[in-house]
Structures are given as structure tokens and as C-alpha cells.
Design goal:
- This protein is an alpha+beta fold and 444 residues long.
- Among the domains are: 64 residues, no CATH class; 79 residues, SH3 type barrels (Roll).
- It contains 16 helices and 6 strands.
- The strands form 2 sheets. A 4-stranded antiparallel β-sheet has the order 1-4-5-6, with helices on one face. The protein has a two-stranded antiparallel ribbon with strand order 2-3.
- A hairpin with a 3-residue loop joins strand 2 and strand 3.
Amino acid sequence: MKMTVRIARVFFAAASLWMLAVPLLLAESGNKKQPVPSEAAQAEAMKIVKEVFGSEYAKAESLAAKQALGKTLLEKARDTHDDMAGKFVLLKLSRDISTQGLDGLAAFRAVDVMAETFEIDPVEMKAAVLKYGAVHAKLGQHHKRLMEGALSLVDAAVAEDNYSVAKRLCDFAASEAPLANEPAARSLAAKRGAEVEEILAVLYEKAQTATAMLSADPVNPQANAAVGKYLCFAKGDWDRGVLMLALGSASDLKAMAEKELDELSPMRPEQVGDGWWEIANKEDGVIKNQIQGRAAFWYRKALPGLSGLMKDRVAKRLDSLAQEHPSAGVIEQPVPRNQSVPEHTTWRVPNNWSEQVQRWRTVIEYTPGGGHKSSQVPYTDTVHHYGAKTVQAKLVGYDQKTGIVVLKIAGENGGKESEQRFRYAALGKEDKKYLDSIRKQAPN
């Protein structure tokens, strides 16, 4: 009977999984961004900007002057709401002038504001800022900031499935590490780059191929295994990934996924955690980290109901993971809290998504008899959108060393809750204030 319930549950979920796989891991759409203004519109806006700020631009020769002008242009752009071309040009100039003034933080802020409104790739832009800074950096501390900035962008590039940029950022960080007198960081950056290129990018490519197969055959074992591994290991989306692993062809992953989904299973939470722990010990690198993170998920569920040696064993494993992988962001630290800090339930989190749109391009063909002829040919393009949304959630974990925040987000329309991870820097102002109040309680 239990086996029948389990199979029915898994196959019922599979009936709709192929629809999830087509727009692979795309977040729900929020407010649409505006396209980048045309070159002609930017040129007209530039004339006005030069008329207003021409003298300041001409005088901005020193680094300090460039930094001041970059901030001025950024504030003017923030106050511009009825002229999108002018807003975009102001932000672009703020980014460029701040970069020339070696003010990377201001340049990053200009890119962030640009990404709030326009369809751009902020990671690509920030990578260009770092590259310029590396050419002009003179002190070891400058190279260290560049290295740290590059590593902080790797996760964002991976989240966009832009693995070529992620690898480039890792290589950049590795090249900056010796100049920053950080030899250990060089090996870590190189290792991360190898994982991005040899594991995450490969998982993504296989998942893309498998997506087409799932449209025709939603329960195809090989395709489900490929997409399930990508969702779990590359994106950390176990809520959807575990459903596909249960339909997959990877026997050990399939067996554990089925046990998770079997509501009638006699397995206790710590036993599910033990199962994932054993599988993780057969893996290496980022895949091992992700599976250990899943084990930790179940261990945290189990911990309040445990006692004695079993509780000590689970707590020791959680602590060992936190110590072993402090930078991986997969193991959350317990949230320190006292009664003086009220519960915070409304959060402002990133809402990034992509969509497939049809565009047209001009193709020119030549024949001896007819000469040159141009025609409009349709093609499909991927448009990335970047924004934020407000969600109802509870704080599950906050790793102050890595800035990883774990939220349990309430499901929409009474749907299932889900745990998601975010960077501290990506959250709203009120969220940061709340987290800062927690940090003050536990400064160590």
C-alpha cells in the first residue's frame, strides 16, 4: 500500500513537471523592466546632460573630482522618473566616471539602480568595472577588494546560468590574489572556477537538453535525473528537484527522493538526513556540499525532538559542516534572538526572472540575378529581468560569516512553504536593520 501511495504521489507530481522544466528555474514574473533606450534616444539625452553637467565633467580630472561627479550623477538619476533615456544616460555616465575615479562601490551602485529599471546584465557590467580597476590598482589592499568583489559576483552569475562570466570572475579573482598577498584565496578561486566550468556548467547543459525531452515524455528517467540534478546541485532548488530525482535514473538519489516524498514512510527526519549524509560522502566539491546541505535541512527538522547521544551526533554533524564549509552558504547557523527583538515577517527579496521573446533581425542575401535583398527573420531571444518583491517569511538561519540568510517563505494562496537562501546585501533596508539587531546580540 505504501509503495502504491508513493508511486502515485510521484507520478502525479510528474504530470506538471515538464511545464516547470521548459522555463528552467525561472522565477515568477513581477513588474517588467524597460528595454535599454535606443542609441538615438541616448544621444538626445546625452546632449541635455552635457549642457547641464558639461563644465563639471570638464573639470573632473582628479580621482576625487571624478568620484564626486559620479555620486552627483547617480543622485540626479535617482530623482529622474519621467525621462527614461535621461535616467539611463545619467546612470551610465555615473558608472563610467566612478569607474575612472576608481570608486568601485559607487560604480556598483549605479549598476544596481540601472538594473532596477532596465533590462541589463548587472553582473557583466560589474565585471567590467573590476577589470578596469585591476589595470589601475596600485596597492595590495586595492587588489584585495577587487578579488573579493569578483568572488562576491560569482554566485550572481551562477544564478543567471551565466557560467562563462562566473568562470571569468573566478579566474580574475585568482589573478588578483597574489597581488593582494592572499595565496590561499588563489587556490580557492581556482577550485571554484573548476567547479563552475566542469560541474555546474555541465549540469546546466545536460538539463537544457533534457528539457526538450520532458516536453514529450514527462516521466523520462534520464531527463528527469538530468534536470533534477541541475535543480538540486546547481540551483539548490530541492523543493522541485527532489520530485524529478524521484522519477530519475540515478538509483541512490531516486531512492532517497522517494523516501522524502513518501508521507507514509516510517523514517524519522534524522534518518532521512542520515541517508543524504551517506550519499554526500560518495561525492566531492559543490555536489557534496549541496547534498550535505539537504542532510542539514532534515537534521534541523529533527533536532528539537532528539535527546541524548542521537541529539549530540546530529548537532556535531551540523557544527562540522558549518566549520568545514563556512563560505559555501549551504549550512545555516542558528539564529540568535532574545525577546527584545520582535519577530520580522515581511521581507523584501530579489525577484529575478527570464523570458523568451521573439525578435527580428535583418538578413541580407545576394544572388547574381537579383542583387542584394534584405528580409526580416524572426529569432528567439532570452531577456533577463531583475527586481524585488515583498514576501511573508520567517527567518530560519543567518550565517554572519558568509552573509547567507535563510528564509521560510509562505506559499502563495495557501501553497507549500519553501526555504530559500539570499545574500544579506540583496535584502531590503528594514530586513538589514532586523539582521543587524540580531548581529549585535551575538557579535562573535
